[in-house]
Design brief:
single chain, Alpha-D-Glucose-1,6-Bisphosphate, Chain A, domain 3, alpha/beta, 190 residues, three-stranded antiparallel β-sheet, globular, four-stranded mixed β-sheet
């Protein structure tokens, strides 16, 4: 898990422990608080999560997670070490929450987000809302409409029942939908 030297320190790792992940199963990268973020932009993107990707590819982890400096955006590396874009994560979250959890409602995304989530929504007959750029628009809609998941291209995401703010990590789909064969098959469809 890459914490980007930021405010996610002691937060996501604690949540994982509370969810039953043993301490021995959590490896932290850039866990020290550093106001200069180690001299890098604290973005959980493919470039900055390269160390996490390498760690996962080495077989030492099945998934890699990352946060930006103020812990309101996420990054995810799947089990083969591939960094997933926020657009892919939004589509996977909708797929999982609708198919495996049976959640009802709509999905909301910002204008510049990919239409990949639209294809998943169409598969399940889920309405898609499109908002201007800015998570505040997603949050406002989530407060007034039944929304399964809402997200933006920059890595802000929230799900039904949570405070509609950026940076909520979706749970890994029980069917392994974040990596391996399932991922490739889903990308072919959408």
């Amino acid at each position: 898990m890459d914490l980007s030297y930021g405010t996610g320190h002691g937060y996501l790792d604690t949540l994982l422990k509370q969810a039953g992940v043993p301490q021995s199963g959590i490896t932290l990268f850039h866990n020290e608080l550093n106001p200069l973020f180690g001299g890098h932009h604290p973005e959980p993107n493919a470039e900055n999560m390269a160390g996490v990707s390498k760690f996962v590819r080495s077989g030492k982890a099945q998934i890699g997670l990352g946060l930006d400096g103020d812990a309101d955006r996420f990054g995810i590396v799947d089990k083969d070490g591939t960094w997933l874009t926020p657009n892919q994560v939004l589509a996977l979250a909708l797929y999982h929450l609708k198919k495996n959890r049976g959640w009802t409602g709509a999905v909301v995304r910002t204008v510049p987000s990919s239409h990949q989530v639209d294809a998943v929504a169409e598969l399940f007959g889920v309405k898609v809302y499109e908002t201007p750029v800015g998570f505040k628009y997603i949050g406002a809609l989530m407060e007034s409409e039944p929304i399964i998941v809402g997200g933006e291209e920059s890595g802000g995401l929230s799900v039904k029942g949570h405070v509609p703010e950026k940076g909520r990590h979706p749970r890994v789909p029980a069917d392994g939908g974040t990596g391996g064969d399932g991922k490739e098959n889903r990308w072919d469809k959408y």
